[in-house]
Amino acid sequence: MRKFLFIGAFFCLCFSRAFALDTDTLMVQARSLVNQDKSRDAALLYEEALGKDSTSYEPSAFLGNYYFLLGKKALNEADAGYRAITQPNRMQMAHHQDQLKYIYHTYYEKAGLYLQKALRIQKNEHLKTLLDTILAFKQKIGLVPALDKK
To answer: What local confidence, expressed as pLDDT, does residue 122 receive?
Structure first.
């Protein structure tokens, strides 16, 4: 019986060490991709690393920033297209509103989840500012009521 416990403990120790190395390797590879301006590929590795260790700050912070910036880019494009219309009709206004909601659900909602996770692990004023910006956007497009400021 003792032999089985010892063997089981040995395998658990080896498995946990391999798990840690695997996560560390993913993080190193992701950082390397970021340095090569391959953010999309880095995001995939950070998501995988976060799947293995959900308490890691670096992937949560990176992914929060990454999805926020993708949302900001999509928002700038949508707003530029809408501003190009001199006198938008109701259909065009409704379409723009749908675009804003799509951008929120596709990018900002995901960014917000990662940012909240990162902030629970470690306080960071920049991440808090991004999260506040997402909340303000969500209020602006009518997904949550605006807070009354007295």
So the answer is: 96
| Beta carbons of 30 and 42 less than 8 angstroms apart | yes
Spatial contact of 40 and 63, defined as CB atoms under 8 Å apart = no
Q: What is the pLDDT of residues 76-124, one digit of tens each?
A: 999 999 999 999 999 999 999 999 999 999 999 999 999 999 999 999 9
Average pLDDT over residues 22-37: 91
Residue with tokens 């910006």: 133
Q: Tokens 């999260």 label which residue?
A: 131
Residue 3 has pLDDT above 90, yes or no: no
- Give the fold, CATH level 3, of 62-150: 1.25.40
The set of long-range contacts for 132-137, using a CB threshold of 8 Å and a minimum separation of 24, is 133/68, 134/68, 134/108, 137/75, 137/100, 137/104, 137/108
Residues in the chain: 150
Closest CA to 59 of 101, 118, 108, 111: 118
* Helix, strand or coil, per DSSP, at residue 81: helix
User: In the chain, how long is the greatest CA-to-CA distance?
Assistant: 81
Q: How far is CA 105 from CA 3, 70, 113, 123, in A?
A: 54, 12, 11, 25
